[in-house]
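Could someone model nicotinamide-adenine-dinucleotide with this protein?
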Amino acid sequence: MTILVTGGAGFIGSNFVLDWLAANDEPVVTLDALTYAGNLANLASLNGDSRHHFVRGSIGDAALVGQLLRGQGVRAVVNFAAESHVDRSISGPAPFFETNVMGTLHLLEAVRAYVAGLDETKRQGFRFLHVSTDEVYGTLERDEAPFAETNPYKPNSPYAASKASSDHLVRAYRETYGLATIVTNCSNNYGPWQFPEKLIPLIIHNALNRKDLPIYGDGLQVRDWLYVGDHCSALRRVLEAGVPGETYNIGGDNQKTNIEVVRAICALLDAKRPRADGASYAAQITHVTDRPGHDRRYAIDPRKLAGELGWRPAEAFETGLARTVDWYLANETWVADVTSGAYRDWVARQYG
Ligand code: NAD
Ligand code: DAU
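Reply:
Sure, complex below.
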């Protein structure tokens, strides 16, 4: 059997593929369009590994997806492929709807056609796992209960609206066509191979390059941070034991304000790579104009996943953040490549 991982060259997708193949021998086909956020270097340790097959292409290409599903005898699809950055969705929403909504629609159509051709046993065993976000639930007040699976959808950014639309599509394919879909809604991830447009890697990168550390507004917005390896272990568990038609919220109960997170990164860097002038990296913190429609607080209630499937996160925020800072300090070449545009040039040369 084989699984198809879409968006597997991005941040969470590549962590998932690596963790999957470290945990078992079931082969993986990775389908990724290699946008600016996708990076084959993330999967370089799998070069020459016969259990992994990489294909460059889009989830919007139903013919290609159909070919891969049939050719590899796929028993499950894990869909990470998306445009994922809120700020980019604010400056240019269209690609978010092309990929996250229309791409998901074409992917679902290819999967529906494939599953219809399977024998009864294989059809029963097939799963479509759609990886989504807590941002579909909107924002919480300071004392409001964390997001449960029963919360109404109230997306506030174009990114969140596009992910909410894709979740609805996935649900509709379950209800209308009986496809064995499962949706997961996860909180903010951090860890290795996160593109330095997102808060934690951006702050590390800017700090080391003596640039401002931009805090949107007052910096008191709250996010519920989960180490990426814990997200991956939750997805493996959901794929293994999750019930088709259900949704599962994934989170690690690590609510922090943005300013707390940035100060924690500065403290780690002060200890691990002190500034030559002896000053703290915190001196680089600068408050800038707030993000339009900025959600004030996210928090996940993970009790369904814990109670029904027995999943627990392994990493505390403090240790996970220290591991992450260590990874970025040890992988400055990766950061330099993805931020210089050199990687995109390589992709153009390699794939034409
Ligand atoms: P990312 O931006 O790092 O990676 C996205 C990947 O998808 C890239 O490799 C990109 O090349 C690929 N891609 C884009 N368009 C594609 C297409 N049309 N066909 C095939 N591949 C395509 O994103 P991420 O942070 O790894 O997030 C992965 C998924 O998890 C997304 O669906 C996102 O909404 C969801 N999610 C992310 C977080 C988070 O904190 N990062 C939290 C919860 C859920
Ligand atoms: O909650 C899950 C979501 O988390 C995922 O669905 C998204 O794909 C992922 O990008 C993330 O969205 P956020 O908008 O929460 O993440 P980001 O890293 O962009 O920002 C985290 C917080 O930090 C947010 O409150 C905005 C703030 N921020 C961000 C940047 C880039 C700053 O204050 N300054 C910055 O420069």
